[in-house]
From TrEMBL, chains A, B:
GO terms for biological process: respiratory electron transport chain. PANTHER family: BLL6224 PROTEIN, D-2-HYDROXYGLUTARATE DEHYDROGENASE, MITOCHONDRIAL. Belongs to the FAD-binding oxidoreductase/transferase type 4 family. This is FAD/FMN-containing dehydrogenase. It comes from the Bacteria. The lineage of its organism: Bacteria, Pseudomonadati, Pseudomonadota, Gammaproteobacteria, Pseudomonadales.
Length: 472, 472
């Protein structure tokens, strides 16, 4: 039984129809845990409205009844932001049936999509219009636009195109009282007051329910190349990205760092990959250049840049992809890390950012602090140099027990976050806070900033019914 | 006499020193009107603090005494946002002494500057570090970073680099109660809660006083070219920008439209300029391409694009700049419009935006409506096609009286704004609201959006002492 009044359930059923209401525990199951099964909760109901108006009616009914809502997209988040608590009184509001692409305006370089559209489908719709939607991340085959907006998603193309926030021109939002705010503007300049959409982007469903968005499109990419480069140190990576940015400008669309340890995990556990070099090197970067011009001389540019890097000792070895197959093979090394690490026992995943210039000192300081406190842990550091964003993950020492290592996870996280904050960084660069990092944020963030956030929360959602227990 | 308690004046003097307090009416004069002398007010005092701590102390003292503050930068705004009302009870807070460049971090591609730094000095500091700070607008020699942030300034490079909002990574803000929020983060990814800086950007000083910012830098431009193209219609301009974006991608850094009427005013009133073509054409665009590569083949690319445009009848004639002198000469035609129009009697200036795809219909509809209601008015339409942003200005009919024309200004504005809103546009694309458009915003904006804005204002500034009478 759901614990909700029968009259409320009946009213909700009238809004969303039989197909939109799930009260059966078996059928609710997949909505109550994230894809990794790291977070699991209980819910009174799962609702699947099929339109903005239905979302609005649901929110209004729940607001009147004082029932809390947990908005949910593709459920691919890493911080439990879309999973209800375990008391069973919250209602999960799945947006996946709001999956229409409402409009493509090629001349305005915009696309208007509903919250439940899968990211990959959005990318494909852009491509069909001869355009690029650049947001790209591991979960793109199942994550939704609404989730990307609610968490201000990042990924590998932020270096050139920005986070989801920078890709958004307008939003449609159902407010906590059930009114619909139509902020679906397709404008690149609009200075007529506070930019309200910015509050909802990255707010993880705590201020309202995003139902649709106007997003920016870009010219299609017609040339692309990648290189795999061995480096002596993270400092060399920072030098190299500065040099390549100066040389290539906006053609530099990817610059991914990974440690030897990261590569070794991939080489051990992912099938069909191989080390591009005969010798082992301490660090690597994957460089991607792209251009709107067909047959742009990107390889020449790469070779010029790498030539200079060799002379200055910044690069130790390099291979430039000679075909699309090789491009994919090099990216497979980078993209295999997360999966490979899972084969080495529990993965403690962190997602920090620091100023790009401080990456080398951050890595040196954190490595040292961890090895001192937890001898033998294996550090799987990789990430997006151009964003200052490192997935500074940790695996257990060889031969250690999983349980003993897991018991240290909080303490390890604290070491990493302490150094991060010391370097004026962020403890969550692109994954958000959700349930996972809410308490850490309380600890590490400026109390004044938390106070301002709470005052906004009170102004928008005084009853506290929007995704309670997340973010704040 | 200032009307303020002597004890308060004494306390303020102790904070800012003799050099930072102006009570003399003569010496206050230049702080009480904007550069065009379109808005003039009165003030109890002008304060010129020299540090963030002094700003904080001033704000705290004024908050305790219930005295309203009007923050002011270079005073180059067009909407009276930095001018006090005429009751003489408000205090003007000039930020121009906060003019330090605190840090340039070339490896992080960021610069940290105080609010009073002149935009041009910021551009120069970036250039000295081998980088580009791309914001560029007419007033750059006297406007300040604080004003650029408070109004989310735009200009001619938004097409490629975005508005001031997109160029900002972090802010330092003195809150209405005098506390300092240190949000000076230099991070490209940070998802640890609501993005508070977004509220202050574009809030025109109504939520707090921005005292410093971390801004993005970009690779220096090493090749640049421009073309001047004659077109049959605004529709051709929209077609041409789509084609050039697809061809050139991010190299397209300027695409400025102007009508024949605009050019004629420039040719009549600006010295040292000439029509690039022997024949008159109805519309023109100035195209700018730039690249980080020295000797990039930009002219080849322009000629390829224009060749296709001629074939399709989109372009009627074109000239490509052969030297830096010619580049400047072409830009002079565009940049002379505002000054030239002032010689033709009162200029009714508007700053609207619509989706790029709707520019042609917007211009046709507005031209028709204006000529029907106000026969003979001369429409000076120009602007940034890539931003959908038109300065759709109006001059009096030939031979008409200034006063009679001025008396129609509200009615003319209403015609233009009605069409703008009909085309899902904005009545203020880049100039903000200030005093000038506050009432129009009340009329044209969604009441729900105004309500949300007011709830934010109440949450941050419950006493309403931050730049009252502006924006909201």
């Amino acid at each position: 039984m759901s614990g909700l009044p029968v009259s409320l359930i009946q009213a909700l059923r009238e809004v969303v129809g039989e197909a939109g209401l799930i009260a059966d525990v078996e059928r609710m199951h997949s909505y109550l845990a994230d894809w990794r099964n790291a977070y699991r909760g209980q819910a009174a109901l799962v609702l699947r409205p099929a339109s903005t108006e239905q979302v609005a009616a649901v929110v209004r009914l729940c607001a009147e009844a004082g029932v809390a809502l947990v908005p949910q997209g593709g459920n691919t988040g890493l911080c439990g932001g879309s999973i209800p608590d375990d008391l069973g009184a919250q209602v999960v509001l799945s947006l996946t049936r709001l999956n229409r692409i409402r409009e493509v305006d090629a001349a305005n370089e915009t696309i208007t999509v509903e919250a439940g559209v899968i990211l990959q489908r959005l990318q494909e719709a852009a491509a069909e219009a001869g355009r690029l939607f650049p947001l790209s991340l591991g979960a793109e085959g199942s994550c939704t636009v609404g989730g990307n907006l609610a968490t201000n998603a990042g990924g590998t193309a932020v270096l050139r195109y920005g986070n989801m926030r920078e890709l958004t021109l307008g939003l449609e939002v159902v407010l906590p009282d059930g009114r619909i705010w139509d902020g679906l503007r397709a404008l690149r300049k609009d200075n007529t007051g506070y930019d309200l959409k910015q509050l909802f982007i990255g707010s993880e469903g705590t201020l309202g329910i995003i139902t649709a968005a106007v997003l920016k499109l870009f010219p299609a990419v017609r040339s692309l190349t990648t290189a795999w480069v061995a480096l002596p140190s993270p400092r060399a990576a920072v030098e190299l990205i500065g040099q390549m940015r100066g040389l290539c400008g906006d053609r530099l669309t990817g610059f991914e760092l990974m440690s030897r340890q990261s590569l070794e995990f991939v080489l051990h556990h992912v099938s069909g990959v191989s080390d591009p070099f005969a010798d082992a090197h301490p660090w690597y970067v994957l460089i991607e250049l792209s251009d709107t011009q067909p047959d742009a001389p990107l390889n020449d540019m790469l070779e010029q840049g790498l030539g200079e890097a060799f002379e200055r000792g910044v690069a130790l070895d390099a291979v430039v992809a000679a075909s699309e197959v090789q491009v994919r093979a090099l990216w497979a090394l980078r993209e295999g890390i997360s999966e490979a690490q899972n084969h080495e026992g529990p993965s403690l995943k962190h997602d920090i950012s620091v100023p790009i210039s401080r990456i080398p000192d951050f890595i040196a300081r954190t490595d040292q602090a961890l090895q001192q406190a937890f001898p033998g842990v294996r550090i799987v550091a990789y990430g997006h140099v151009g964003d200052g964003n490192l997935h500074y993950n940790v695996s257990k020492p060889l031969g250690a027990e999983d349980a003993a290592f897991k018991a240290q996870s909080e303490a390890i996280m604290q070491v990493i976050f302490d150094v991060t904050v010391n370097f004026a960084g962020s403890i969550s660069a692109e994954h958000g806070l959700g349930q996972a990092k809410r308490d850490a944020a309380r600890h590490y963030k400026d109390p004044l900033e938390l106070e301002l956030m709470r005052s906004i929360k009170r102004a928008f959602d005084p009853a506290g019914l929007m995704n309670p227990g997340k973010l704040l």
